[in-house]
Specification:
Number of helices: 28
Helix content: 40-55%
Largest sheet: 5 strands, mixed
């Protein structure tokens, strides 16, 4: 549920803006502009979004707060829009402005109260925006004096503990009071607390609690001031939907597109309250199968005509006919000083790092040019009505995302423009680099490493592309620490290269570096480049290692949505689903793994032609040419995960609802055999150890205990030379089950004890207790068996 509280202002029309060269800030009135007072208006904003909660997905005495998908991303998107000229040009505090963004762990009760209190410094002539995307709930409060119970609505923040809401959550009436005390007379208040299944309360229905919290909030926020307009994301008995192909809730996604210009139905250069309301009423139901219907109302007729944003048109020749325009979103996440022009018409001002501009362009094929210093790129982009197109300008490893230049077709979520500012390498260095890449593509990594080292030396050490390929070659040879050094050197030469930042984060993770730092780096890349699918893949893999399966699944589903042809996205998603407490998800795991196998086979075939040479660099050559995703390593892992998914599905079938489990186990055995063949060709035997463990479990479930013991013990033997697997709890758990079935209770107890010791803090208190009880039972059986014999 999103509520908007607004007070009137009147920016000039689009043509007035162009003729007078004015950038009109949201909140400025026509009299302010004409009197020359626009600069005196201060813009204030507090934006709050909580997707991950400190106690999220945990049972605390019957209270459970469900982590969300998109709330933090929604707050970030509103922040990015407000910073754009179309959104008002707000500045955050680090830039001398008054905008505060609080996401996830930043959005504690103390920090939110401090930020809201800071708005009291605004002047009456200023303009403010407050946005919160989080759970809302109602908690009972018993008054011992009156002996009555009342219901109190709260916003649930990052550190909220629902056992003590008064100390850790924000009462909605306190929130309303804080907003009513803001001195500024013009403002916009957005609140989204309609995330379904949000808060489970002891003895209460979660949906009912959330719904009543939203209704109560609407009633209270309506009392803030007169002349106010409100928009709710959904009707009071509906939920707000999220979609995997959006990084936001459906409502926020439509809200942003509408404010950017899609809702400007009369093409007059501004989006009014009435226009955005109509746009949302039309678009949100279309995207939710008619299940969600935004509602709007005002306390004064004039509020219907409040302008909420200004709209930039690159071509005014078709003004008055909205069907002849489509929305272009142009982003420069990391690069300063980019000049952009559409069909020769420059967009002012020059783009700075972090800029995101929304432009309404004529439909059809448009020519967009990008200039930074001596660098110039031009592309042709198709603009369609009703289909926003994202264009992102980057300085990175890639020079092209053309399907002809890539091993995996690029995402269609955006058009990428690549600028390269470093000097052309010497001819000798470039020749050595080309030969090195050719050896890399042929998977001759020692030769590639020698040639790439010489290329770097021939260019006095300043050859970022060669260093990136060198790092990947080192990973392929198991030299994990060397790879980290190479990627760091490449990044020092090209600090804005987000693709190399992701490769470095992955290399540091594989080398065992600080995981918190790796997570921070990946989240930074994803925030700036949300459509870079490989960053989501690596982040999902890191989350998998932390057993944060729900968040890992979300990141990997986003990667698949961005690029359905990404083999590692399907592969690691399969691995994540294998561990989920859901039979349907475990079935889906096998499908995802087999999809990954198909896609890796396609990459392998395309790689042969790629070995003839590079025309223009593509990051996919690096990702799929070496490291974890070289042919044998990738196929061994893909077949192993497919085998594991099918085998563990049968092991999870506690209610015997799978009609023919042997069919699944036989399919798994085929994948095990393929994985075994490729794993035996690898230099590292890590994959072989994992395949043998799955093979042991597969034999066990088929009733072949002798072979299960043999493969399990062989897996243990291989692990002795692999430090990271030497103390892996999974193999001990598998062998304990196998020996118990073989009635060798002493060995079963030994392995159960090793499982408990190896798992350590990974086990919850409940799981540890269960494991200890099983160990005690095995010891009793072992003692009884000795007495019997």
């Amino acid at each position: 549920m999103v509520s908007l509280s607004l007070v009137s202002f009147s920016p000039t029309k689009a043509q007035d803006q162009r003729e007078r060269g004015l950038t009109i800030k949201v909140g400025a009135t026509r009299s302010d502009i004409s009197a020359g007072h626009a600069n005196e208006i201060q813009l204030w904003a507090v934006l709050i979004g909580v997707s991950r909660y400190q106690y999220g997905d945990q049972d605390l005495d019957g209270y459970n707060i469900k982590n969300l998908k998109n709330a933090a991303d929604d707050a970030q998107a509103i922040y990015d829009f407000l910073k754009s000229p179309e959104g008002g040009g707000f500045r955050d505090e680090s830039e001398g402005g008054h905008m505060v963004l609080l996401k996830d762990e930043q959005a504690t009760k103390a920090s939110v109260e401090k930020a809201l209190d800071g708005l009291k410094r605004a002047k009456p002539s200023d303009y403010f925006i407050v946005y919160i995307a989080a759970h809302g709930t109602i908690m009972p409060f018993y008054d011992a004096i009156s002996r009555t119970t009342t219901e109190i609505p709260y916003f649930v923040l990052y550190d909220t503990d629902l056992r003590k809401p008064d100390k850790t959550a924000i009462r909605m009436d306190d929130y309303q009071q804080a907003i009513s005390e803001i001195p500024a007379k013009k403002g916009l208040v957005l609140s989204d607390t309609c995330h379904s299944g949000g808060v489970q309360l002891a003895g209460r229905d979660s949906a009912d609690s959330t719904r009543r919290a939203n209704i109560r909030y609407l009633q209270e926020v309506n009392e803030i001031s007169s002349g106010v307009g409100f928009i709710s994301a959904a009707d009071q008995l509906e939920q707000s939907f999220e979609r995997d192909d959006f990084r936001h809730g459906v409502f926020t996604n439509c809200l942003l597109d509408g404010l950017a210009g899609s809702a400007d139905s009369n093409t007059d250069g501004k989006v009014t309250f009435n226009e955005i309301s109509a746009y949302l009423r039309d678009e949100v139901p279309k995207l939710t199968e008619n299940k969600q219907h935004p509602k709007s109302n005002t306390t004064a007729i004039d509020a219907n005509f409040l302008p909420l944003s200004v709209v930039t048109y690159s071509d005014v020749s078709a003004l008055g006919n909205p069907d002849q325009y489509g929305l272009l979103q142009i982003r420069t996440p990391d690069i300063d000083g980019v000049e952009v022009a559409i069909d020769g018409q420059p967009l002012k001002p020059t783009f700075k790092a972090g800029n995101q501009r929304a432009v309404m362009a004529r439909t059809g094929t448009r020519s967009i040019t990008f200039v930074k210093g001596e660098m110039r790129r031009e592309l042709k982009a198709r603009v369609d009505p009703g289909k926003p197109k994202v264009v992102e300008v980057n300085l990175s490893f890639s020079e092209s995302d053309s399907p002809d230049d890539a091993l995996v077709d690029p995402t269609d979520q955006q058009v990428a423009v690549y600028l390269r500012e470093e000097k052309e390498p010497s001819k000798q260095a470039k020749d050595l680099f080309t030969k090195g890449v050719d050896s890399f593509n042929k998977q001759k990594y020692e030769d590639a490493l020698d040639l790439l080292n010489r290329a770097v030396q021939a260019n006095a050490g300043a050859y970022a592309d060669a260093l990136v390929f060198r790092g990947r070659a080192e990973q392929s040879l198991g030299r994990k620490r060397d790879a980290v050094v190479s990627f760091k050197q490449a990044l020092a030469l090209r600090p804005t290269d987000f693709e190399t930042q992701t490769l470095l984060a992955e290399a540091k993770f594989n080398a065992g570096d600080n995981v918190d730092e790796v997570v921070s780096e990946l989240r930074s890349v994803i925030r700036r480049h949300p459509n870079f699918d490989f960053a989501h893949v690596v982040y999902g893999d890191v989350l998998l290692s932390r057993k944060d399966y729900a968040r890992a699944e979300l990141e990997l589903r986003r990667a698949v949505t961005i690029n359905p042809k990404s083999p590692p996205a399907h592969l690691i998603l399969a691995d994540v689903l294998t561990y989920q407490d859901s039979k349907e998800k475990r079935k889906r795991a096998a499908e995802e793994a087999e999809k990954a196998i198909q896609l890796f086979e396609e990459v392998s075939k395309k790689q042969v032609s790629a070995a003839r040479g590079l025309r223009r660099l593509s990051i996919s050559h690096v990702i799929f040419g070496g490291g974890r995703y070289i042919n044998d390593a990738a196929m061994a892992e893909a077949h192993w995960i497919a085998a594991k998914a099918l085998t563990r599905l049968v092991g999870y079938d506690f209610d015997n609802s799978i009609p023919d489990p042997d069919t699944y186990l036989d399919r798994a055995r085929t994948h095990i055999q393929e994985a075994m063949k490729t794993a035996q060709r690898l230099t590292s035997k890590e994959r072989l150890a994992l395949v043998l463990e799955t093979s042991a479990l597969n034999h066990f479930l088929k009733g072949n205990i002798a072979q299960a013991v043999q493969d399990g013990e062989q897996s243990l033997k291989v692990r002795e030379a692999i430090p990271q697997l030497r103390n892996d709890p999974d193999i001990y758990s598998t062998l304990s089950q196998i020996y118990e079935a073989d009635q060798k209770f002493v060995k079963a107890a030994e392995h159960q004890k090793k499982f408990i010791d190896a798992a350590g803090s990974q086990l919850s208190a409940r799981d540890r207790q269960s494991a200890e009880e099983r160990l005690a039972q095995l010891k009793r059986q072992a003692a009884a068996n000795r007495q019997k014999n």
